[in-house]
Amino acid sequence: MDVHGLFALLVLASFSGDNTNYWIGRYVGPCVFKRERSRFFNPAHIERTQRFYEKHGGYYFGNIPVVKYNLTLFILGIIVVSIMPGNIEFMRRKLGNAKN
Using one digit for the tens of pLDDT, what is the confidence trace for 49-74? Predict the structure, then answer.
């Protein structure tokens, strides 16, 4: 499987999906909000959501002090843990070849 072609396809798919959802929301969104109450839209839910965001902020975990001040370390930890299996296998093969 061509890795470069797969990467290009995934980038294209993510870009297309994001834009498709944006345009659907831009077109359908105002129609949904014009109705008093529809099958998929309940104004009470919107009010409840707005109260939640006013109380807790735009995103929940970003307002927790531990996350706010240590997010960089957390992301670096995820990167290190995700790279470790490849590095371990590389070292095993390198050391295995050195012994032979």
Answer: 888 877 776 666 666 777 777 778 88
Token pair 């002090």 in the structure block, residue: 65
Query: How many residues are listed for the chain in this entry?
Result: 100
Q: Mark 59-86 as b/e (b = at least 16 C-beta within 10 Å).
A: eeeeeeeeeeeeeeeeeeeeeeeeeeee
Task: For 21-44, write each residue's pLDDT tens digit.
Answer: 989 988 887 777 777 777 777 778
Q: Of 46, 12, 17, 13, give the one whose Cα is nearest residue 32.
A: 46
Q: Quickly count: other Cβ atoms within 10 Å of residue 41's Cβ.
A: 15
This prediction's pTM: 0.39
Structure tokens at 23: 């345009």
